[in-house]
Amino acid sequence: MSKTQSQRKKEDEEEESQIMPSSPKSFSARPFSATRRSNALVVIVSLCIGISGFVFGLTALFVSPSARRCGGNIRPRSVSVVWETNALTSELKADRGGLLLDGERTRHKVMAFVGIQTGFGSSGRRQSLRKTWMPSDPQGLQRLEESTGLAFRFVIGRTKDKRKMLELDKEVEAYDDFLLLDIEEQYSKLPYKTLAFFKAAYALFDSDFYVKADDDIYLRPDRLSTLLAKDRPHSRTYLGCMKKGPVFSDPKLKWYEPLHYMLGSEYFLHAYGPFYALSADVVASLVALRNNSFRMFSNEDVTIGSWMLAMNVNHENDRHLCETDCSPSSIVISDIPTCSGLCNPETRLLELHKRKNCTDTPTVDD
Ligand SMILES: *[C@@H]1O[C@H](CO)[C@@H](O)[C@H](O)[C@H]1NC(C)=O
Ligand SMILES: *[C@@H]1O[C@H](CO)[C@@H](O)[C@H](O)[C@H]1NC(C)=O
């Protein structure tokens, strides 16, 4: 009798272990433990605050001048988000007041959100991008979003320079293709902006992937769409053109790393900085942590790579994301490693866009 009971218990356990992965690496499948409960609470509280912040964020959409101009048919794009203001909250709120938009209290659903990181000295690059692979108006962006599932926005912080801020305001009004972060651009060399970007993008968009791109690359949105839509066995993906390389301990060198003593002589595998993508599960984990929990190395690509090294993600290496010339399967064109993106991007973007082998080629190479 006791034998059958223990047998049954064993069967139950076996059944349970089939449902629950035995690997403790799977975050979502694990039951709540006492030690996790407080963490979960922080996450839930942050999420609630984040969501309410998002609702505030929508008010910024409502006051967007071009939204009024277009009669509300075209979904406005430029939004402001504030970087977290204290340790507990990842508060996102608009810096402009306004009314609530009814029925739009959910994050906008797209397959991927592509944030093109840009700065105050880069209006020429933005103009070149708008003349080449990136649509130059909200209608064009909307059409591209419908055909590829990709939403594109320029991502920029703020500056204390009033004249530059005014210029940016004008550009925002004219093109309405920005995501404005409430962080100082002077930190943009540090990876803080990237983290702020992922948090803001996650709050505003419900995407399978969040893509970080620089403003000096040539991109084929159609092929990127195909790549991101691919079936993957893992839900936690770090996708990019992967590299390793020497750690520079000489302060005179461009890529000097002050924390080199932690690293040894060669970096861990990480994606080139101008273009990489994180799946929603990965970004959700970043969003759940306080901004000052992360180690920041001096280079952005290495810093993200170090976070990904610590997390249970699949490193997906794709060389089509770092080609130096247009080919039948190239997705991102840059002059890596000569320049971090394209050398002389303003003119090179226009040159590339004139070439048949960059534009008049099929989406996928069969
Ligand atoms: C990160 O958060 C802390 C407080 O949690 C804040 O003092 C700091 O300014 C934030 N960092 C950035 C870059 O905003
Ligand atoms: C693409 O075309 C340019 C000239 O338009 C040529 O120089 C280049 O070699 C071509 N690239 C490839 C990969 O065929």
Write the topology of this structure.
Blueprint lengths: L1 H18 L14 H29 L2 H5 L9 E4 L25 E10 L5 H9 L6 H11 L1 E9 L3 H14 L2 E7 L7 H13 E10 L3 E2 L1 H9 L7 E7 L26 E10 H8 L12 H11 L3 E4 L14 E2 L11 H10 L1 H4 L7
Parallel strand pairs: 1-4, 2-3, 2-5, 3-4, 7-9
Antiparallel strand pairs: 5-8, 6-10, 7-8
The structure holds 2-acetamido-2-deoxy-beta-D-glucopyranose (2 copies).
Subcellular location: Golgi apparatus membrane
Protein name: Hexosyltransferase
GO molecular function: galactosyltransferase activity
Task: Provide a short characterization of the protein structure.
This protein is of the alpha/beta class and 366 residues long. It contains 12 helices and 10 strands.
Radius of gyration: 22 Å
Helicity level: 25-40%
**Roughly how many Å apart are the termini?**
64 Å
Number of helices: 12
Largest sheet: 8 strands, mixed
Low-confidence stretches: 12-36, 57-73, 83-104
What integer is the average pLDDT?
Answer: 80
**Multimerization status:** single chain
The SS-based structural class is alpha/beta
Secondary-structure element order, N to C: HHHEEHHEHEHEEHEEHHEEHH
Bound molecule types: 2-acetamido-2-deoxy-beta-D-glucopyranose
Biggest sheet strand line-up: 1-4-3-2-5-8-7-9
Silhouette: globular
DSSP strand content: 15-25%
Number of strands: 10
